[in-house]
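ZP: hey, is the phosphoenolpyruvate complex queued? I don't see it on the tracker
AM: it wasn't, my bad. submitting now with these inputs:
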Amino acid sequence: MEQFVIKGGKPLYGTVRVQGAKNSALPILAAALLAGGVHEIRDVPRLSDIFVMGEILKALGVKVKKDGNTVGLETTTLKSSCIPEVLMRQMRSSIFLMGPLLSRLQEVSLTRPGGCDIGARPIDLHLKGLASLGATVEEKDGVIHCFARKLTGADIFLELPSVGATENIMMAAVRAEGTTVIRNAAREPEIVDLQRFLNRMGADVQGAGSRIIRIRGVKQLQPVSYEVIPDRIAAGTLVVATAMTGGEVLLTHVVKEHMESTLSLIEKTGAELRSEGDALWVRGPSQLQAVGNVVTKPYPGFPTDMQPQMMALLSLAKGENSIFESVFEGRFKHVQELIRMGADLSTVENRVEIRGVPQLMGHTVEATDLRAGAALVVAGLAASGTTLVKGLSHIDRGYEGLDTTLLQLGGQIQRCSSRVASG
Ligand SMILES: CC(=O)N[C@H]1[C@@H](OP(=O)(O)OP(=O)(O)OC[C@H]2O[C@@H](n3ccc(=O)[nH]c3=O)[C@H](O)[C@@H]2O)O[C@H](CO)[C@@H](O)[C@@H]1O
Ligand SMILES: C=C(OP(=O)(O)O)C(=O)O
Protein backbone atom coordinates (compact mmCIF):
# COMPACT_ATOMS: atom_id res chain seq x y z
CA MET A 1 0.00 0.00 0.00
CA GLU A 2 1.26 3.45 -0.86
CA GLN A 3 0.89 6.68 1.06
CA PHE A 4 1.90 10.31 0.75
CA VAL A 5 4.40 11.65 3.24
CA ILE A 6 3.94 15.42 3.37
CA LYS A 7 6.17 17.82 5.26
CA GLY A 8 3.91 20.81 5.65
CA GLY A 9 4.39 24.52 6.06
CA LYS A 10 6.10 25.30 2.75
CA PRO A 11 4.31 27.81 0.47
CA LEU A 12 3.75 26.63 -3.11
CA TYR A 13 5.48 28.66 -5.84
CA GLY A 14 5.75 28.26 -9.60
CA THR A 15 3.82 27.50 -12.74
CA VAL A 16 1.85 24.40 -13.56
CA ARG A 17 -0.42 23.25 -16.40
CA VAL A 18 -3.79 21.87 -15.29
CA GLN A 19 -4.75 18.36 -16.47
CA GLY A 20 -7.61 17.59 -18.83
CA ALA A 21 -10.99 17.03 -17.17
CA LYS A 22 -11.70 13.55 -15.81
CA ASN A 23 -15.44 14.23 -15.89
CA SER A 24 -15.28 15.15 -19.58
CA ALA A 25 -12.87 12.45 -20.69
CA LEU A 26 -14.89 9.57 -19.15
CA PRO A 27 -18.25 10.20 -20.90
CA ILE A 28 -16.45 11.19 -24.12
CA LEU A 29 -14.51 7.91 -24.22
CA ALA A 30 -17.83 6.11 -23.80
CA ALA A 31 -19.54 8.29 -26.43
CA ALA A 32 -16.86 7.35 -28.99
CA LEU A 33 -18.63 3.96 -29.22
CA LEU A 34 -21.48 5.71 -31.04
CA ALA A 35 -19.44 5.98 -34.26
CA GLY A 36 -17.51 3.06 -35.70
CA GLY A 37 -13.97 3.95 -36.79
CA VAL A 38 -10.77 5.41 -35.38
CA HIS A 39 -11.13 8.20 -32.79
CA GLU A 40 -8.36 10.21 -31.19
CA ILE A 41 -9.14 11.81 -27.81
CA ARG A 42 -6.49 14.27 -26.59
CA ASP A 43 -5.55 15.68 -23.18
CA VAL A 44 -7.02 12.66 -21.45
CA PRO A 45 -5.61 12.65 -17.90
CA ARG A 46 -3.69 9.53 -16.88
CA LEU A 47 -5.90 8.33 -14.04
CA SER A 48 -6.98 4.97 -12.70
CA ASP A 49 -10.60 5.71 -13.77
CA ILE A 50 -9.39 6.27 -17.35
CA PHE A 51 -7.45 3.00 -17.14
CA VAL A 52 -10.63 1.19 -16.04
CA MET A 53 -12.62 2.80 -18.88
CA GLY A 54 -9.93 1.55 -21.29
CA GLU A 55 -10.20 -1.97 -19.84
CA ILE A 56 -14.00 -1.93 -20.22
CA LEU A 57 -13.72 -0.76 -23.83
CA LYS A 58 -11.20 -3.54 -24.54
CA ALA A 59 -13.51 -6.10 -22.94
CA LEU A 60 -16.24 -4.91 -25.33
CA GLY A 61 -13.96 -5.49 -28.33
CA VAL A 62 -12.62 -1.96 -28.90
CA LYS A 63 -8.92 -1.52 -29.73
CA VAL A 64 -7.43 0.99 -27.29
CA LYS A 65 -4.06 2.65 -27.87
CA LYS A 66 -2.60 5.10 -25.36
CA ASP A 67 0.22 7.49 -26.11
CA GLY A 68 0.83 9.89 -23.22
CA ASN A 69 -2.37 11.89 -22.85
CA THR A 70 -3.81 10.79 -26.20
CA VAL A 71 -6.15 7.82 -26.40
CA GLY A 72 -6.80 6.18 -29.77
CA LEU A 73 -9.94 4.05 -30.07
CA GLU A 74 -10.77 1.73 -32.96
CA THR A 75 -14.46 1.14 -32.33
CA THR A 76 -15.38 -0.78 -35.51
CA THR A 77 -14.46 -3.98 -33.68
CA LEU A 78 -17.05 -3.40 -30.90
CA LYS A 79 -18.80 -6.75 -30.45
CA SER A 80 -19.98 -7.19 -26.87
CA SER A 81 -22.73 -5.35 -25.02
CA CYS A 82 -21.96 -7.04 -21.72
CA ILE A 83 -19.82 -5.13 -19.20
CA PRO A 84 -17.90 -7.41 -16.81
CA GLU A 85 -19.02 -6.97 -13.20
CA VAL A 86 -15.48 -6.73 -11.87
CA LEU A 87 -14.92 -3.61 -14.03
CA MET A 88 -18.40 -2.13 -13.37
CA ARG A 89 -17.63 -2.17 -9.66
CA GLN A 90 -14.44 -0.16 -10.00
CA MET A 91 -15.98 3.22 -10.77
CA ARG A 92 -19.21 5.13 -11.12
CA SER A 93 -18.46 6.19 -14.69
CA SER A 94 -18.90 2.64 -16.01
CA ILE A 95 -22.59 3.63 -16.19
CA PHE A 96 -21.80 5.96 -19.14
CA LEU A 97 -21.50 2.92 -21.39
CA MET A 98 -25.26 2.30 -21.16
CA GLY A 99 -26.47 4.97 -23.57
CA PRO A 100 -23.84 4.38 -26.28
CA LEU A 101 -24.14 0.54 -26.18
CA LEU A 102 -27.90 0.68 -26.32
CA SER A 103 -27.70 2.99 -29.32
CA ARG A 104 -25.03 1.06 -31.22
CA LEU A 105 -25.84 -2.58 -30.35
CA GLN A 106 -29.51 -2.21 -29.28
CA GLU A 107 -28.73 -3.76 -25.91
CA VAL A 108 -26.54 -3.57 -22.84
CA SER A 109 -26.07 -5.83 -19.79
CA LEU A 110 -24.38 -4.55 -16.69
CA THR A 111 -24.42 -4.55 -12.91
CA ARG A 112 -24.74 -1.48 -10.68
CA PRO A 113 -21.66 0.75 -10.79
CA GLY A 114 -19.16 1.14 -7.95
CA GLY A 115 -17.29 4.32 -7.10
CA CYS A 116 -16.62 6.65 -4.20
CA ASP A 117 -18.58 6.15 -0.99
CA ILE A 118 -20.23 9.58 -0.83
CA GLY A 119 -23.90 8.61 -0.80
CA ALA A 120 -26.35 6.06 -2.17
CA ARG A 121 -25.97 7.32 -5.79
CA PRO A 122 -28.93 5.50 -7.35
CA ILE A 123 -29.23 5.17 -11.14
CA ASP A 124 -33.03 5.43 -11.38
CA LEU A 125 -32.92 8.60 -13.51
CA HIS A 126 -30.58 6.92 -16.02
CA LEU A 127 -32.88 3.90 -16.30
CA LYS A 128 -36.10 5.96 -16.48
CA GLY A 129 -34.56 8.18 -19.16
CA LEU A 130 -33.57 5.22 -21.32
CA ALA A 131 -37.00 3.65 -20.81
CA SER A 132 -38.60 6.90 -22.03
CA LEU A 133 -36.63 6.49 -25.27
CA GLY A 134 -38.26 3.10 -25.72
CA ALA A 135 -35.81 0.75 -24.02
CA THR A 136 -37.01 -2.19 -21.96
CA VAL A 137 -35.14 -2.35 -18.66
CA GLU A 138 -35.10 -5.62 -16.71
CA GLU A 139 -33.15 -6.33 -13.53
CA LYS A 140 -32.63 -9.92 -12.35
CA ASP A 141 -30.10 -11.27 -9.84
CA GLY A 142 -28.27 -7.95 -9.84
CA VAL A 143 -27.87 -7.83 -13.63
CA ILE A 144 -29.56 -5.00 -15.52
CA HIS A 145 -30.48 -5.86 -19.09
CA CYS A 146 -31.59 -2.99 -21.24
CA PHE A 147 -32.67 -3.51 -24.86
CA ALA A 148 -34.50 -1.69 -27.66
CA ARG A 149 -34.83 -2.63 -31.31
CA LYS A 150 -35.39 1.06 -31.95
CA LEU A 151 -34.94 4.17 -29.78
CA THR A 152 -37.45 7.00 -30.27
CA GLY A 153 -37.12 10.63 -29.21
CA ALA A 154 -39.07 11.65 -26.09
CA ASP A 155 -39.73 14.58 -23.77
CA ILE A 156 -37.90 13.77 -20.53
CA PHE A 157 -38.11 15.73 -17.28
CA LEU A 158 -35.33 14.95 -14.77
CA GLU A 159 -36.52 15.17 -11.16
CA LEU A 160 -32.92 16.14 -10.29
CA PRO A 161 -30.40 17.73 -12.66
CA SER A 162 -28.23 14.61 -12.62
CA VAL A 163 -24.99 15.04 -14.55
CA GLY A 164 -24.64 11.36 -15.44
CA ALA A 165 -28.31 10.86 -16.35
CA THR A 166 -28.25 13.96 -18.60
CA GLU A 167 -25.15 12.58 -20.36
CA ASN A 168 -26.45 9.02 -20.69
CA ILE A 169 -29.73 10.23 -22.19
CA MET A 170 -27.89 12.59 -24.59
CA MET A 171 -25.72 9.69 -25.79
CA ALA A 172 -28.66 7.31 -26.22
CA ALA A 173 -30.72 9.94 -28.05
CA VAL A 174 -28.26 11.11 -30.72
CA ARG A 175 -29.17 8.27 -33.08
CA ALA A 176 -32.77 7.82 -31.94
CA GLU A 177 -35.64 8.46 -34.34
CA GLY A 178 -37.03 11.97 -33.86
CA THR A 179 -36.30 14.63 -31.26
CA THR A 180 -35.52 14.21 -27.57
CA VAL A 181 -35.92 17.07 -25.12
CA ILE A 182 -34.25 16.84 -21.70
CA ARG A 183 -35.80 19.26 -19.20
CA ASN A 184 -34.17 20.22 -15.91
CA ALA A 185 -30.91 18.99 -17.45
CA ALA A 186 -27.64 19.38 -15.56
CA ARG A 187 -25.66 22.40 -16.83
CA GLU A 188 -22.07 21.44 -15.97
CA PRO A 189 -19.28 22.49 -18.40
CA GLU A 190 -18.56 18.79 -19.01
CA ILE A 191 -22.06 18.45 -20.49
CA VAL A 192 -21.29 21.28 -22.90
CA ASP A 193 -18.04 19.46 -23.76
CA LEU A 194 -19.96 16.24 -24.45
CA GLN A 195 -22.39 18.16 -26.69
CA ARG A 196 -19.42 19.61 -28.61
CA PHE A 197 -17.92 16.13 -29.02
CA LEU A 198 -21.21 14.59 -30.17
CA ASN A 199 -21.82 17.41 -32.66
CA ARG A 200 -18.26 17.09 -33.98
CA MET A 201 -19.18 13.44 -34.75
CA GLY A 202 -22.22 14.67 -36.71
CA ALA A 203 -24.93 14.71 -34.02
CA ASP A 204 -27.46 17.51 -33.65
CA VAL A 205 -27.52 18.49 -29.96
CA GLN A 206 -28.41 22.01 -28.81
CA GLY A 207 -28.83 23.71 -25.46
CA ALA A 208 -26.18 22.07 -23.24
CA GLY A 209 -25.28 24.51 -20.48
CA SER A 210 -28.95 25.51 -20.15
CA ARG A 211 -31.83 23.67 -18.46
CA ILE A 212 -33.23 22.35 -21.76
CA ILE A 213 -31.26 20.18 -24.16
CA ARG A 214 -32.71 19.26 -27.58
CA ILE A 215 -31.33 16.29 -29.47
CA ARG A 216 -32.47 15.67 -33.03
CA GLY A 217 -31.67 12.09 -33.96
CA VAL A 218 -29.31 11.55 -36.90
CA LYS A 219 -28.67 8.35 -38.88
CA GLN A 220 -24.91 8.31 -39.01
CA LEU A 221 -21.96 9.55 -36.94
CA GLN A 222 -18.26 9.71 -37.88
CA PRO A 223 -15.16 9.18 -35.74
CA VAL A 224 -13.24 12.34 -34.76
CA SER A 225 -10.15 13.80 -33.17
CA TYR A 226 -11.05 15.81 -30.08
CA GLU A 227 -9.42 17.53 -27.07
CA VAL A 228 -11.20 17.56 -23.71
CA ILE A 229 -11.57 20.73 -21.60
CA PRO A 230 -9.32 21.54 -18.61
CA ASP A 231 -10.26 20.05 -15.24
CA ARG A 232 -11.94 22.76 -13.15
CA ILE A 233 -11.79 20.66 -9.97
CA ALA A 234 -8.08 19.82 -10.31
CA ALA A 235 -7.48 23.56 -10.93
CA GLY A 236 -9.61 24.52 -7.92
CA THR A 237 -7.69 22.08 -5.72
CA LEU A 238 -4.38 23.74 -6.69
CA VAL A 239 -5.86 27.20 -6.04
CA VAL A 240 -6.89 26.04 -2.56
CA ALA A 241 -3.44 24.55 -1.89
CA THR A 242 -1.81 27.85 -2.92
CA ALA A 243 -4.16 29.92 -0.78
CA MET A 244 -3.70 27.65 2.25
CA THR A 245 0.09 27.68 2.09
CA GLY A 246 0.33 31.44 1.43
CA GLY A 247 2.09 30.72 -1.86
CA GLU A 248 2.02 32.22 -5.35
CA VAL A 249 1.23 30.02 -8.34
CA LEU A 250 0.44 30.53 -12.01
CA LEU A 251 -1.92 27.89 -13.39
CA THR A 252 -2.15 27.52 -17.14
CA HIS A 253 -4.77 25.61 -19.17
CA VAL A 254 -7.64 26.96 -17.08
CA VAL A 255 -11.14 28.04 -18.11
CA LYS A 256 -11.86 30.62 -15.43
CA GLU A 257 -15.54 30.89 -16.45
CA HIS A 258 -16.02 27.25 -15.38
CA MET A 259 -14.77 28.10 -11.88
CA GLU A 260 -16.68 31.29 -10.99
CA SER A 261 -18.38 30.01 -7.82
CA THR A 262 -15.18 28.40 -6.51
CA LEU A 263 -12.97 31.38 -7.30
CA SER A 264 -15.33 33.97 -5.86
CA LEU A 265 -15.35 32.08 -2.52
CA ILE A 266 -11.57 31.71 -2.48
CA GLU A 267 -11.20 35.40 -3.26
CA LYS A 268 -13.41 36.20 -0.26
CA THR A 269 -10.93 34.38 2.00
CA GLY A 270 -8.36 37.04 1.07
CA ALA A 271 -6.50 35.26 -1.73
CA GLU A 272 -5.58 37.43 -4.72
CA LEU A 273 -6.57 36.13 -8.15
CA ARG A 274 -5.83 37.46 -11.62
CA SER A 275 -6.48 35.88 -14.96
CA GLU A 276 -5.47 36.41 -18.55
CA GLY A 277 -6.38 34.08 -21.39
CA ASP A 278 -6.09 30.54 -20.08
CA ALA A 279 -3.78 31.55 -17.20
CA LEU A 280 -4.82 32.08 -13.61
CA TRP A 281 -2.47 33.67 -11.07
CA VAL A 282 -3.12 33.05 -7.36
CA ARG A 283 -1.47 34.49 -4.26
CA GLY A 284 -2.44 33.30 -0.79
CA PRO A 285 -3.06 35.81 2.01
CA SER A 286 -1.05 35.98 5.24
CA GLN A 287 -4.32 35.20 7.11
CA LEU A 288 -7.33 33.46 5.56
CA GLN A 289 -10.67 35.09 6.41
CA ALA A 290 -14.10 33.51 7.00
CA VAL A 291 -16.66 33.61 4.18
CA GLY A 292 -19.86 32.62 6.06
CA ASN A 293 -22.18 29.90 4.82
CA VAL A 294 -21.22 27.77 1.85
CA VAL A 295 -23.77 25.53 0.13
CA THR A 296 -22.90 22.97 -2.54
CA LYS A 297 -25.23 23.08 -5.56
CA PRO A 298 -25.40 21.84 -9.12
CA TYR A 299 -23.51 24.04 -11.61
CA PRO A 300 -23.24 27.03 -11.71
CA GLY A 301 -23.41 26.72 -7.90
CA PHE A 302 -20.45 25.81 -5.72
CA PRO A 303 -19.42 22.24 -6.72
CA THR A 304 -19.70 19.34 -4.32
CA ASP A 305 -16.39 18.10 -5.79
CA MET A 306 -14.67 21.14 -4.17
CA GLN A 307 -16.46 20.83 -0.81
CA PRO A 308 -13.81 18.80 1.09
CA GLN A 309 -10.93 20.98 -0.17
CA MET A 310 -12.89 24.14 0.76
CA MET A 311 -13.49 22.69 4.22
CA ALA A 312 -9.75 22.20 4.68
CA LEU A 313 -9.18 25.81 3.61
CA LEU A 314 -11.87 27.25 5.88
CA SER A 315 -10.46 25.28 8.81
CA LEU A 316 -7.65 27.84 8.79
CA ALA A 317 -9.82 30.92 8.15
CA LYS A 318 -10.23 33.45 10.94
CA GLY A 319 -13.82 33.31 12.20
CA GLU A 320 -16.72 30.92 11.72
CA ASN A 321 -18.02 29.25 8.57
CA SER A 322 -20.42 26.49 7.71
CA ILE A 323 -20.72 24.16 4.75
CA PHE A 324 -24.03 22.60 3.77
CA GLU A 325 -23.69 19.60 1.43
CA SER A 326 -26.85 19.49 -0.67
CA VAL A 327 -25.80 17.10 -3.46
CA PHE A 328 -24.49 13.93 -1.75
CA GLU A 329 -25.82 12.81 1.61
CA GLY A 330 -22.64 10.97 2.65
CA ARG A 331 -19.85 13.32 1.64
CA PHE A 332 -18.39 14.22 5.04
CA LYS A 333 -15.97 11.33 5.63
CA HIS A 334 -13.03 13.77 5.61
CA VAL A 335 -14.41 15.62 8.65
CA GLN A 336 -13.04 13.13 11.19
CA GLU A 337 -9.68 13.12 9.46
CA LEU A 338 -9.43 16.93 9.44
CA ILE A 339 -10.34 16.92 13.15
CA ARG A 340 -7.37 14.59 13.74
CA MET A 341 -5.23 17.31 12.16
CA GLY A 342 -6.53 19.89 14.63
CA ALA A 343 -9.49 21.36 12.71
CA ASP A 344 -12.39 22.52 14.87
CA LEU A 345 -15.42 21.04 13.10
CA SER A 346 -18.82 19.77 14.16
CA THR A 347 -21.38 18.03 12.01
CA VAL A 348 -25.15 18.43 12.26
CA GLU A 349 -26.82 16.28 9.59
CA ASN A 350 -25.62 17.68 6.26
CA ARG A 351 -23.99 20.78 7.69
CA VAL A 352 -20.50 21.19 9.11
CA GLU A 353 -19.75 24.14 11.39
CA ILE A 354 -16.17 25.30 11.04
CA ARG A 355 -14.41 27.38 13.67
CA GLY A 356 -11.09 28.51 12.23
CA VAL A 357 -7.88 27.46 14.01
CA PRO A 358 -4.50 29.19 13.64
CA GLN A 359 -2.69 26.00 12.62
CA LEU A 360 -3.31 22.42 11.49
CA MET A 361 -0.95 19.71 12.70
CA GLY A 362 0.51 16.80 10.79
CA HIS A 363 -1.13 13.42 11.49
CA THR A 364 -1.71 10.02 9.90
CA VAL A 365 -4.99 10.24 8.00
CA GLU A 366 -6.91 8.14 5.49
CA ALA A 367 -8.53 9.19 2.23
CA THR A 368 -11.89 7.46 1.96
CA ASP A 369 -12.86 9.02 -1.38
CA LEU A 370 -11.28 11.10 -4.12
CA ARG A 371 -11.93 14.67 -2.97
CA ALA A 372 -11.62 13.75 0.72
CA GLY A 373 -8.11 12.64 -0.24
CA ALA A 374 -7.44 15.94 -2.00
CA ALA A 375 -8.59 17.83 1.11
CA LEU A 376 -6.19 15.86 3.31
CA VAL A 377 -3.30 16.53 0.95
CA VAL A 378 -3.90 20.31 0.89
CA ALA A 379 -4.34 20.27 4.68
CA GLY A 380 -1.04 18.38 5.00
CA LEU A 381 0.77 20.93 2.82
CA ALA A 382 -0.37 23.73 5.13
CA ALA A 383 0.00 21.86 8.45
CA SER A 384 2.99 21.95 10.75
CA GLY A 385 4.98 18.72 10.90
CA THR A 386 4.49 15.56 8.89
CA THR A 387 1.21 14.21 7.51
CA LEU A 388 0.82 10.68 6.19
CA VAL A 389 -2.11 10.32 3.78
CA LYS A 390 -3.26 6.75 3.17
CA GLY A 391 -5.78 5.55 0.62
CA LEU A 392 -3.98 6.89 -2.47
CA SER A 393 -6.02 4.69 -4.80
CA HIS A 394 -8.88 7.17 -4.30
CA ILE A 395 -6.71 10.19 -5.12
CA ASP A 396 -5.24 8.48 -8.20
CA ARG A 397 -8.78 8.11 -9.60
CA GLY A 398 -8.95 11.83 -10.28
CA TYR A 399 -5.55 13.54 -10.10
CA GLU A 400 -2.78 12.82 -12.58
CA GLY A 401 0.42 12.62 -10.53
CA LEU A 402 -0.77 14.96 -7.77
CA ASP A 403 2.53 14.42 -5.91
CA THR A 404 4.59 15.28 -9.01
CA THR A 405 2.54 18.43 -9.62
CA LEU A 406 2.96 19.59 -6.02
CA LEU A 407 6.68 18.75 -6.01
CA GLN A 408 7.03 20.90 -9.13
CA LEU A 409 5.54 23.76 -7.05
CA GLY A 410 8.00 23.19 -4.21
CA GLY A 411 5.65 21.13 -2.01
CA GLN A 412 7.40 18.54 0.14
CA ILE A 413 5.47 15.42 -0.72
CA GLN A 414 6.64 11.91 -1.42
CA ARG A 415 4.84 8.77 -2.48
CA CYS A 416 6.14 5.88 -0.38
CA SER A 417 5.12 2.36 0.38
CA SER A 418 3.59 2.32 3.90
CA ARG A 419 6.31 -0.10 5.05
CA VAL A 420 9.08 2.37 4.14
CA ALA A 421 7.19 5.37 5.55
CA SER A 422 6.57 3.79 8.94
CA GLY A 423 9.90 1.90 9.16
C1 LIG B 1 -18.00 11.36 -13.77
C2 LIG B 1 -18.75 12.53 -13.28
O1 LIG B 1 -19.10 13.42 -14.03
N1 LIG B 1 -18.96 12.59 -11.95
C3 LIG B 1 -19.59 13.76 -11.40
C4 LIG B 1 -21.10 13.61 -11.53
O2 LIG B 1 -21.48 12.41 -10.86
P1 LIG B 1 -22.95 11.83 -11.08
O3 LIG B 1 -23.33 12.01 -12.50
O4 LIG B 1 -22.95 10.46 -10.53
O5 LIG B 1 -23.79 12.78 -10.16
P2 LIG B 1 -25.30 13.19 -10.34
O6 LIG B 1 -25.37 14.58 -10.84
O7 LIG B 1 -25.99 12.14 -11.11
O8 LIG B 1 -25.83 13.15 -8.84
C5 LIG B 1 -26.48 14.24 -8.24
C6 LIG B 1 -27.50 13.75 -7.24
O9 LIG B 1 -28.51 13.06 -7.94
C7 LIG B 1 -28.76 11.80 -7.36
N2 LIG B 1 -29.17 10.86 -8.43
C8 LIG B 1 -28.40 10.73 -9.55
C9 LIG B 1 -28.75 9.87 -10.55
C10 LIG B 1 -29.91 9.11 -10.40
O10 LIG B 1 -30.28 8.31 -11.27
N3 LIG B 1 -30.66 9.27 -9.28
C11 LIG B 1 -30.32 10.13 -8.29
O11 LIG B 1 -31.03 10.25 -7.29
C12 LIG B 1 -27.42 11.43 -6.74
O12 LIG B 1 -27.55 10.47 -5.73
C13 LIG B 1 -26.95 12.77 -6.20
O13 LIG B 1 -27.53 13.01 -4.96
O14 LIG B 1 -21.72 14.75 -10.95
C14 LIG B 1 -21.47 14.88 -9.53
C15 LIG B 1 -22.25 16.08 -9.05
O15 LIG B 1 -21.77 17.23 -9.60
C16 LIG B 1 -19.98 15.01 -9.27
O16 LIG B 1 -19.75 14.95 -7.89
C17 LIG B 1 -19.19 13.89 -9.94
O17 LIG B 1 -17.82 14.18 -9.89
C1 LIG C 1 -17.35 11.96 -7.16
C2 LIG C 1 -16.49 12.12 -8.15
O1 LIG C 1 -16.40 11.36 -9.27
P1 LIG C 1 -17.22 10.07 -9.72
O2 LIG C 1 -18.58 10.53 -10.14
O3 LIG C 1 -16.43 9.60 -10.89
O4 LIG C 1 -17.26 9.11 -8.58
C3 LIG C 1 -15.50 13.24 -8.15
O5 LIG C 1 -14.89 13.46 -9.21
O6 LIG C 1 -15.31 13.88 -7.11
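AM: back. DSSP finds 15 helices and 23 strands in the chain.
ZP: great, adding it to the tracker
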